[in-house]
Amino acid sequence: MYDSPPPSETKRPPIWQRLLNDAVTQPAELLALLDLDPALPALDYARLKHFPLRVPRGFAAKMRRGDAQDPLFLQVWPSSREAIETPGFVADAVGDLVKLKTGGVIHKYRGRALVIATGACAIHCRYCFRREFPYGETLGARGQWRETLATLAADPTIEEVILSGGDPLALSDDKLAAFVEALSDIPHLRRLRLHTRVPVVLPERVDAALLGWLSASPLQKIVVLHANHANELGEDLRLACEALRAAGVTLLNQSVLLRGINDSPAALVALSERLLACAVLPYYLHLIDRVNGSAHFEVVETAAGQLMQQIAAQLPGYLVPKLVREIAGESAKTLMPW
Ligand SMILES: *Cc1c(COP(=O)(O)O)cnc(C)c1O
Ligand code: SF4
Q1: Among the listed residues 316, 309, 307, 314, the one whose alpha carbon sits nearest the alpha carbon of residue 276
Q2: pTM of this prediction?
Q3: DSSP labels for 144-182?
Q4: What pLDDT, on the 0 to 100 scale, is given for residue 140?
Q5: Which of 32, 71, 243, 337 is most buried when burial is the number of CB atoms within 10 A of its CB?
Q6: 138: how many CB neighbours lie within 10 A of its CB?
Q7: Ligand 1 centre and the CA of 68: distance in Å?
Q8: 50-76 pLDDT, tens digit each
Q9: H or E segment and range at residue 271
Q10: Is residue 192 lining ligand 2, measured as CB closer than 6 Å?
Q11: Exposed, middle or buried by CB within 10 Å (0-12, 13-18, 19+), for 135?
């Protein structure tokens, strides 16, 4: 009668996997959870289908109830404003598609190769510059690591591999461990970097299995988190960061400067200070990439420059992030003057 193995032989999915699958995906449910007006204007279904709402319940729990201007809520709420077309806002804002090589490798900058490890994310950030990225066409699901490893092995100028996406930590530990282990056979690689928002929005992801393959890698390890507001950084994340550091990881953070979310000196100062409390240093503060549907998040360059002057007058230098913009065709991220 029973085809599946008895429970003792099946591998139980890790807790984070269940939390990931249990994310809120229905706008009406999120509004109800937060005691918000059910009539708040949302993106039409046809558009929402291409980039649905997705927010882990633990992240939603960090939002203030009854506040439609909550800085965490605004990052995930599919507002009707996304449907507004704005000149200068396009599908591939940073010119990644022309640089894409076999195996999902984007090699734009010297010494560093970025790997689009997956299109999946734990959370959908409405300002995301990859929201229109054609993942399906670029990632050959099966045998993809083999092609990725071959591309990395073929270029001895590559010293650092950056796992990105989507979010690399949306992948299973089995997949990641196999890939990271194979990286250590490529003699010219020295560093492994992860660009991930998962520890911030789902700190449970930093579990023994993840810490296991990370600490086993002989490469130097850097994790660049992505948090935009101090309210995202709870005690759960601080403990996750402590565990990552104990596994030999250097921790940095990148943020996106977002109108109405973190575009005040007080919000940016609080973010830097809270990051330091988690032993994470601020790295980049990005001006948004001008992708379709994100115009309402834009902070113009002059206002961004003024914010930088204000926070630099209040913070130690190591807590002041670099204000950057990604300009297609440049040899590095472009540092903005202020
Ligand atoms: C941002 C980025 C990097 C990393 O750049 P750093 O300045 O070293 O942080 C590498 N590759 C691509 C394609 C990038 O967009
Ligand atoms: S986690 Fe990163 S890649 Fe995923 S939606 Fe948010 S910004 Fe985009």
Answers
A1: 316
A2: 0.95
A3: HHHHHHHHHHT-TT--EEEEESS-GGGS-HHHHHHHHHH
A4: 46
A5: 71
A6: 18
A7: 34
A8: 999 999 999 999 999 999 999 999 999
A9: helix 265-277
A10: no
A11: middle
